[in-house]
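Key result, reporting period 2: structure in, sequence out.
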């Protein structure tokens, strides 16, 4: 479990290169593309087509959760029921990833024997990682007049102050962080914060699971090697 920029993909890759035998299920992005978005579009009478804009994807997955409580857990259950063959090749089967309280609760209910790893990091840290990774998946259509200044565009973002200090963001821009990438990353992280409460998810899992079944890691305090070693010991 974890939001954009906490290090989920990095952690999984480190475990694989470290020799941990894993069976990776189709990830969140894949199930969103193949199951969630097409169903929501069909239900709305819209043409089924790929959606690249991450803010639009958040809206579509929200509509899916309204149709199917549990959201991604519901989609994962559908995949496991309809997969042409059992995808299990090792004892450790990994799904990347669930987000928020509702999906944590649904995950515990649907998969009572599952173990949960929640990776976390503060919004500003995740913002810098998001800007730095320059992933084409992080596409956001920035709307509004192009003639407005960076500060005007920044302050026009709804609910900016609920997550970020505008002064810190202005400082990053002044230090050379590409402003267009910064604006897109801010929008992604704000949209995630609006849709998924990871603090509530962590609190719920601490109550619902014991130390054998729930691991919380703040990736700002650990190197990639430390994260890998901690997960391997826990597994």
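The corresponding designed sequence is given below.
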């Amino acid at each position: 479990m974890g939001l954009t920029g906490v290090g989920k993909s990095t952690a999984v890759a480190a475990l694989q290169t470290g020799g941990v035998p894993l069976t990776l299920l189709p990830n969140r992005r894949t199930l969103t593309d193949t199951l969630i978005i097409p169903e929501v579009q069909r239900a709305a009478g819209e043409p089924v087509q790929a959606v690249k804009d991450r803010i639009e994807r958040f809206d579509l997955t929200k509509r899916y959760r309204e149709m199917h409580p549990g959201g991604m857990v519901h989609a994962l259950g559908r995949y496991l029921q309809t997969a042409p063959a059992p995808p299990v090749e090792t004892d450790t089967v990994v799904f990347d990833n669930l987000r928020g309280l509702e999906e944590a609760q649904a995950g515990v209910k649907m998969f009572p024997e599952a173990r949960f790893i929640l990776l976390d990091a503060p919004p500003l840290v995740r913002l810098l990682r998001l800007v730095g990774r320059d992933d084409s998946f992080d596409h956001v259509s920035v709307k509004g007049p192009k003639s407005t200044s960076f500060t005007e565009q920044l302050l026009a973002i709804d609910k900016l102050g609920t997550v970020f200090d505008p002064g810190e963001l202005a400082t990053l821009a002044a230090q050379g962080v590409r402003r267009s990438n910064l604006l897109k990353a801010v929008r992604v992280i704000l949209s995630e914060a609006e849709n998924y409460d990871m603090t509530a998810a962590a609190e719920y899992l601490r109550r619902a699971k014991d130390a054998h079944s729930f691991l919380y890691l703040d990736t700002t305090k650990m190197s990639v090697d430390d994260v890998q070693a901690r997960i391997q010991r826990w597994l």
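The mean pLDDT is 91. Strands lie at 23-24, 93-94, 116-120, 214-218. This case is discussed further under Risks and Mitigation.
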